[in-house]
Amino acid sequence: MVKVKMGQKCRDKVTGFEGVVVAIHEYLYGCRRISLQPESKNGEWKGSVAFDEPGLEVLDSVKLKASKEERETGGPNKYMPKNKPTG
């Protein structure tokens, strides 16, 4: 089984639901759930739906582009002063 990656377009084999992978959820005992968000045709936002990974087939990869600021997530804010150890 090929592991699904962020940004790929996938289809659920049971329901036929298609969308782009927007989240991957890994659970303690190895279950992977994949959230697919359908494409919007008229600009309105549609929520995502999660499926078990083995039930998905990859249709194609989507080239995601993000600015450097959008890619840098998590961690300390670069504008916050660093805390000095006390004691």
In short:
It is built from one helix and five strands. By secondary structure, the chain is mostly beta strands. It has a domain at 22-60.
Please tell me about this protein's structure.
There is one protein chain. The chain has one helix and five strands, in the order βββββα. The N and C termini lie far apart (53 Å). A five-stranded antiparallel sheet has the order 4-3-2-1-5, with no helix packed on it. Helix content is 5%, strand content 34%. The chain has one helix spanning 68-71; strands at 8-12, 18-26, 32-37, 49-52, 56-61. The mean pLDDT is 81. The protein is mostly beta strands and 87 residues long. The protein is extended and about 60 Å long. β1 (8-12) and β2 (18-26) form a beta hairpin. The protein has a domain at 22-60.
N-to-C SSE string, H for helix and E for strand: EEEEEH
What does the main sheet amount to? 5 strands, antiparallel
Helicity range: under 10%
The count of helical stretches stands at: 1
Structural class: mainly beta
Going across the biggest sheet, name each strand in turn. Answer: 4-3-2-1-5
Low-confidence stretches: none
Overall 3D geometry?
A: extended
Please report which band the strand proportion falls in: under 5%, 5-15%, 15-25%, 25-35%, 35-45% or over 45%: 25-35%
Average pLDDT number: 81
Number of strands: 5
- Give the CA-CA distance, first to last residue: 53 Å
- Determine Rg (CA atoms, Å): 18 Å
Structural key phrases:
1 helix; 87 residues; 5 strands; mainly beta
Produce the secondary structure layout.
Blueprint: E1 8-12, E2 18-26, E3 32-37, E4 49-52, E5 56-61, H1 68-71
Antiparallel strand pairs: 1-2, 1-5, 2-3, 3-4
